[in-house]
Amino acid sequence: MKEKVRVGVIGTGYVAQNNFIPVLPKMDDVEIAGIMANHLNNAQKAQRMCGAQQAVSTIEELVDLGLDAAFVLTPKSCHAEQISFLLKHGVDVYSEKPMATTLKDADHMVELSEQTGRKLMIGFNRRYAPVCQKAKEAYTNIMPDVIIGQKNRPATEYHATLENAIHIVDLMRYYGGEVKEVHAISKYTDPDYETFTTAQLLFENGASGMLIADRSSGQWEETIEIHGGNQSVLIRMPDSVTITDGEQSHTTEMTPLAMGWAKSEDKLGFSYAIRHFIDCVKEDKVPLTNAIDAFKTHELLDRILRSAGLPGME
User: Fold this and answer.
1) 195 Cβ partners below 8 Å, 6+ apart?
2) Residue 186's closest CA among 22, 307, 16, 5?
3) Does 3 score more than 90 pLDDT?
4) Distance separating the N- and C-terminal Cα atoms of the chain
5) What DSSP element (H or E) covers 287?
6) Does the chain have fewer CB atoms within 10 Å around its N or its C terminus?
7) What is the mean pLDDT of residues 274-287?
């Protein structure tokens, strides 16, 4: 087992600066070999933030630093090309979602990971969030009957359901398993900028799911409700989870647990996802959100989009 994992970071935007660059230097078994950005000055700024050994402007320079693993934190249009380059050069990869903008490219990433024998973990960080883990514990030995997932925001954006609801779709798979039927509805004037998407899901185990992704709500809201086995779970991301049975209701809140110092990288699961990836690299284990599993979430989202009359992951 490696004592230290040499990592490279690609991308220095909001997600990188808030949820990765602050976390990696805290890990004693991680060595930040280099940070890459297309504009070298951005890489140099990030280098000063985290103490990376090198700042570079090309992926070739980054790989030449001798990496064990790399974090792809760039815009989604870059993911497939960058993941492909890294896997082919023997580097294990953690990539932000989605793994590619088309199912064809996503499938190719799965194949490359298998052909090269390198790990590819997709950053479905919500699974690793403490509130979501507590919900999973409640439904480890009990199958849910009903799962309701919501991801609502005040304003739309280009392909809004794909961009934001993918996390909720992944969590619904995490709790309910695979889906055999999808019936979706969307409202839009321009199909590239939908107002909302709702979807009824029938899981293979007989459970029912409802996805609600609205882009005209009052504020950002992300919730999961799970019912079944004479108990219920309500997750209010990323702060609280309430587990209720016939005798009691118990709520766990993240901020009081952290003495008022709860941070987004912990509450939203980023720090736990990063730790999981590093452990998988060191111990040669398959990540929870590996390429094969993540592809199934992309595929389900594509089915929802197409059923709703929206552009799919073509």
Assistant:
1) 156, 186, 187, 188, 214, 215, 216
2) 307
3) no
4) 41
5) none
6) N
7) 97
